[in-house]
Amino acid sequence: HTLAAITFRLFDMINKVYRMTFKRNLKLLIFVILILLIAPVLGFVTYLFQSSQSELLNLLIITFGVTGILWIPGIILHLSYYLKDKGKEIKMTKEYIEISKLNIIKKISFRDINQVITIDNSCIARSPWNDYGFVRLTMKDKTVEIITCLTVDPFTLNLELSRRTKCGSEKKYVGIPFLF
Q1: Which of 14, 88, 112, 148 has the fewest CB atoms in 10 Å of its CB?
Q2: What is the rounded CA–CA span in Å between residue 114 and residue 137?
Q3: Burial of 32 (0-12, 13-18, 19+ CB in 10 A)
């Protein structure tokens, strides 16, 4: 990103509403779906060339087991993010972040934010969930708000928050950025 593009992007965030979209969900989930489809595709190809049903069943079980190491955590990760942010909208203003979910509106003043922690998996570039991550906002009254990548890109949100708050900010890298 160039400095001009980042500056334009920051000013573009003011009064912009962020929400979960089908396109963003699909972009993040596509690699997990592709890994999940390996076993059925391999099974179909084997079925076309093999006559033994037991070999086909063994191959499917082994393939689902091996690929399950990748797609099961990916599905759990995506579902936890989806359930956390379903129906959530985030609006950035000059003074606060407005978070609405299920007709409940919460306004968080930038000066009430004590710490911003961005948790992601960008250190492992080849994992199926390397674009997943979230921002944990800890307020001065110790309440916590979590905003996941399904609603707004953590990099963009972190840039805006670091520009508007005078609180501590840190980035943590984890293998799989689960919410729990």
Answers
A1: 14
A2: 8
A3: buried
pTM: 0.79
Cα atoms in the Cβ-side hemisphere of radius 13 Å centred on 117? 13
Q: Which of 63, 30, 31, 65 is nearest to 47 (CA)?
A: 63
Strand order across the beta sheet in which 88-92 lies: 17-19, 88-92, 96-101, 104-109
Q: CA-CA distances (angstroms) from residue 16 to 92, 97, 127, 166?
A: 6, 11, 31, 22
Residue range 120-176, pLDDT digits in tens: 876 666 677 778 889 999 999 999 999 999 999 888 888 888 878 888 788 887 777
Handedness of CA 154, 155, 158, 160 (dihedral sign): negative
| Residue among 127, 140, 135, 128 nearest 155 (CA) | 135
